[in-house]
Amino acid sequence: MEMGLERVVATGGRQRAASLPLSSCDSALEPKGRRSPGDLRPSRARRCFSVEVQPPFPHLMLAFLARAPRPLLSGSAGSPRRAMAAAARQGLRSSSSSSKKLVECFYDVLSPYSWLGFEVLCRYRPIWNMELRFRPVFLGGIMHSTGNRAPALVPKKGEYMTKDLLRMAKFYQVPLHPVKDFLGTVLEKGSLKAMRFVTAVDMAEPQFLEPVSRELWMRIWSRDEDINQPESILAAAERAGLSLDQARKLLEMSSSPEVKNRLKATTDEALKYGAFGLPCFVAHVNEEPHLLFGSDRLELLGHLLGEKWLGPVPTSSKL
């Protein structure tokens, strides 16, 4: 079956639009009627120009369509004309991917609110025009450097936080449950060993950074399990898809000076941006960094990026 292709046939000094099949370009040059073998000249100087959608130059196609006569743009939704226009627009969207705005997500698996923001950003990654970069840091270092205190140290804040986490978990659709011993889990055990392991993953096996982080969050904030003992870290790594051999090598690597220095450097970078807690998001817009604190600032992040906020669980029906 021949596919139709828009062509412009120039006759004399005038132009008209015609829809010709892909194989009919040569036939437009043939004279009509019977002629002698020696007379094969076209009846008029007809030239056929094919308009093909070339991915590197979709803007040329759109410019042509904008100037074309109205019949060229008409047709059913499934017609070749519409298909060509849609392909050109898709090409423009593809060519704009290089202009994605960088969004850095600074997090620690000890922070439950970081998990909420992390999951929502993962959902928006294919929707918003952004380059999402996860930056594991050490929450204890940020709190110490800024003189900040955990909300749970203030009794009323602690009570509110427990209720707030349950509400937020339901709203964000993340399986988060407050731990039984918040002070012991967060303040005494901390997350230094876990975040060194996450940093090692980021350095050596970055494709596993997202699932490893998620599995550590699942252990502490969904099942109230340990995240600091070697066997706990190895179990999370295996559930994330790493082999036991890979996980053991990364665990050994996590105690190296290179990993320790990397975690400290990333934490210091977050502090330079102005971080005082987690999660923190840094949106780079017009070569200027914008720091946002808290998982409840993602709507504002979308505004900075010039994107539409569709709620914490965006669906295709909202697009």
UniProtKB/TrEMBL annotation:
Catalytically driven reaction(s): RX + glutathione = an S-substituted glutathione + a halide anion + H(+)
SUPFAM superfamilies linked: Thioredoxin-like (SSF52833)
InterPro entries cross-referenced by the UniProt entry: DSBA-like_thioredoxin_dom, GST_Kappa/NadH, GSTK, Thioredoxin-like_sf
Q: Which UniProt keywords apply?
A: Transferase
A Gene Ontology annotation in the biological process aspect, one of them, is:
glutathione metabolic process
> What does UniProt give as GO cellular component?
mitochondrion; peroxisome
The enzyme's main class, written as a single word, is transferase
| EC numbers for this chain | 2.5.1.18
Q: Name one GO molecular function term.
A: glutathione transferase activity
Superkingdom field: Eukaryota
According to the entry, every stretch annotated as the DSBA-like thioredoxin domain falls at 103-304
Q: Which family does it belong to?
A: Belongs to the GST superfamily. Kappa family.
- Name this polypeptide is given: Glutathione S-transferase kappa 1
Q: Which organism is it from?
A: Podarcis muralis
Classification lineage:
Eukaryota, Metazoa, Chordata, Craniata, Vertebrata
